[in-house]
Amino acid sequence: MSEQSSSISPARQGAGSVEFGRYYYRHDCGIPYERNEHWLGFFGAMADAIVRDLRPSTVLDAGCAKGFLVEALRNRGVEAWGIDVSEEAISEVHESVREYCQVGSLTEPLPRRYDLVVCVEVLEHIPAAEANAAIANICAAGDRILLSTTPDDFSEATHLNVQPPELWSAAIAQNGLLRDTEHDVSYVTPWAALYTRSEEPLAEAVRRYDRSWWRLRRETDQLRDSLLSAHSRLAELEDQPGESRPELQAEVDRLNEEVLKLRDLLIGKDAELGVAKGKLAMYEDGRERLENVKRRFGKVPGFGMLLHLFLRLVGRG
Amino acid sequence: MAAPRFSILTPVYNTPAGVLEKMLASVETQDYGSWELCLYDDASTEPHVREILAAAAARDARIRVEFAERNSGIVGASNGALAMAGGEFIALLDHDDLLHPDALGHVSAAIDGAPDVDYLYTDEDKITASGQHRDPFFKPDWSPERMRTQMYTCHLSVLRRSVVEEVGGFDPEFEGSQDWDLVLKVTERARRVIHVPRILYHWRMLETSAAAGGEAVKPYAFEAGKRAVQAHCDRTGLQAEVERDPIDPGILHLQPRLKSEPLVSIVIPTAGQRRDVRFEEVVLVVHCVRSILEDSSYENLEIVVVYGEATPPEVLEELREIGGERLRLVPYEGKFNFSAKINLGAVRSRGEHLLLLNDDIEVRTEDWIERMVMYSEQEGVGAVGGKLLWGDGRLQHVGVAFDAGRPGHYHRGFAEDYKGYSNYTLIARNCLAVTGACLMTRRSVFDQLGGLSMSFPVNFNDVDYCLKAYKEGLRIVYDPDLIMYHFESSSRDPEVKEWELNLLQDRWLAMTMNDPFGNPALTHGLPRISSYVSWVKRRPGPLWKRQRRRFEPTR
To answer: What ipTM was reported for this prediction?
Structure first.
């Protein structure tokens, strides 16, 4: 969403508001980042999950951009605040939470502590030289940190510091927080992680990490096995000519016959309809002509009786 | 649409005075007025020709004459006349023939009904030197297959001028049959071809004209006709070699020359019956399969025999012995339904072409499958059939035709060499249906049409199939040189139930009420007596008795 620094060169700082100006929000966030159904829904769902799983009473959204998450959390009764480097974004924060969102940089120490600090797609925008300071500030502001920062999107112009997840984990561990392996926060992004301040001994942390590593390893092995057997079964089926699977071939033949029958039925009924329409038009025509005769000669005395007898005679009465 | 203008092309060369005057008068008395007569005198040596033509041009501005300085033959003269033409359509009129006074009127009425038409032709008769009418020729609707073996459209031919010029006019390479060549070239690209079923042209039989017939008059013309059709086959990708008939010079035959042999699946439904064939009892299906394998020259075929529950096991054993690798036996269970048997055989076969065959057939023509494939490979063809004979050599089937919605086999029981009306049995033709006793169709067409209809379990499923194909715009072909024996019981007609005929008519009456490949004047393939009367009534009286009438097309 957003971020920036204060201690880099003046030129760079001046660019800060341009980098995360209107163009950025309109074009660089996938679906245009504005007050629309998509983003409100996304942050609403994220807020629901945070309230359900983590039950924080105070939250800071570090790099809050237009404050959608702050707004969503406040609506769910959580005391939430937001901070963002972009004045442009802060100026568009919804008025109901405007007083809780302010312009500020993560490279400056944060004013107070919170139950949870959320930092979604922000750190990759901070130059590497200042990233450690920002992480230290975030870690100082709370005991739980929900962090998401892209591991592989190098293509975007404002992504100054894209790093693999383990580097971020290591940097945060330096500040005394370890990954919470029990909580799944993939509702934010696939690479999002929750870090908790931990006093646990090294052995305990290793046990915890090993447990989840082992589970994933088993899962991978088993999936690969079932994929391999599916492959070989597929190859087997492809190599077999039709005749060697008589029951399948019989079914295909039966269905082909059925298709023929239905096609014929369609064509036949269509033709019957055409002929019927033609006959109908012919009868209509005849009726019309009969009506004409009646109209023209109906007033002649005795004509009606004659016509009636004639029609009886030809069997059309 | 504005009334089209006709340019009548008439090359003139040494025409007898009386004949020439009559020809001119027959044009001048046309009830339809928008025409021009393009007379191109091919350097006649008789002095009266120039006088008569000059006089005609002087009395009517629509008659234009050009005199050539030296003789250039019929093609050169025709092209000279074509160069004079300015109308939307050209009509071909020979210098000694007559137009019916209604001719252009009826043709323009037909054009009115179908503005995209590129070629029209009418019925014709012949007229003797003394003015008697003979040999009315009542023609079928547009039949491309017939056009390859007989120049049947002949007179009166009316062609869209832009298309004629596109194909380069009359081709000197086919001198004598230049009109056949031209019509073939025009119809190859024509958007629509229309037949006007009225005698509107009278072709004069003089000793020097081809109408009197015989090769002696213009031997080169027939050879040119053969070459024109051969060139047409080469252009359209029909893999055939054209041959002339040894007896009738006006008939051609196509001999198949396939470049490759696609797989053909012969589907034979059977119940293993026995019947007398030439006074000897045989199992029909065994006799049939043996005949196919021994008497056919085609190699790439598979035979699919669909047998009913009643088939004796020793018959199947014998079939396996004869058929070997190329035979596939498919059991059919359930109530008898001919269509279901054929459809079952079709889905179990793999050939590109399906050949439906009854088990009481015996092969006579060695290259019968090649012949069928030759036609069946053509994009526009839906089904191909041939000439079937009873065991005693009499005709059983020469294509199915319709009389007022009732299908029939014309000339059934006639001798094998019976020609029929206008060589009906001797030429390749298009018709509405051929019998399913021996019928080839492409598999893609079979699938598209839903195979044979289950609604017709016994009779008419073949006719229904062909009509389905015809409705889709595909042609049905009868090949006269594909001759097979069909040991159908000739003593009694196959039992047709009333409901079957009713269902057939409920489906197809709109198409079969007036068989497009018959003619309103024909019944059972022959001119009906009343048509002679109306034909005599319709022909023009002596010129001096004729009055100008307002033309009103009648239906």
So the answer is: 0.79
